[in-house]
Amino acid sequence: MRQTMEISELLEVLGKRKWIVAFITVFTALAGFAYSYFLVNPMYRADTTLMVSSSKGTVSADDPASYIDIGRISVNQMIAVTYGEIVKSRVVLEPVIEELDLDMSYEELLDRTVSEPVEATEIIRISVEAESRNDAVTIANKITEVFVEEVVRILKVNNVEIIDRAAATEEPVNMSPVALTAIAAAAGVVIGILVALIVDYRDNTLKSAEDIERQIGIPVIGSIPDFGKMKED
Q: GO molecular function of the protein, one example (predicted)?
């Protein structure tokens, strides 16, 4: 077989081996659907936001400078980074597990929790993933409550304000069965084409005059008909 293959030859091979492509595509699609539907638990995410400050300052109408303090904003942004790490600490997450009687370890809850400052702001966003929307909201709100309490207890300051209580996504955030099935089917098409080409490459039998001409480079002068088939006809 030649090292290169023209488009027409490729289409001819795929036409002959289409059952291979079809079988592998259907198989991988069904496998992807079964995996996503029966083995992957849907996960929902709840987000809550907090604002931190270096102090409980007040805004005075008589003092315009009290409205914006660039230096204080920069300090607050650094505090937000620190507080984002405190949210994920054992001192916050372990009480949440105990108070909600969660069937998970600290490490498992940590894997489901993301706490990070919103870029160029004094805001911290806390995100929690759980198997249900209600669980995600409950855990996120409890983490927020415990975090605020621990900041007051440890640092002796009350400089955290809750902006938004937790709200959960309407749809699961992990891959849906439809999306995973489509990806699996697409992968099956690619795999099926590769398998079809390999099978055809390893098939050394000559099935037509064109095959003979390609293999030995000599034109076919004539061919002997299959008299058995002619009698049947």
A: protein tyrosine kinase activity
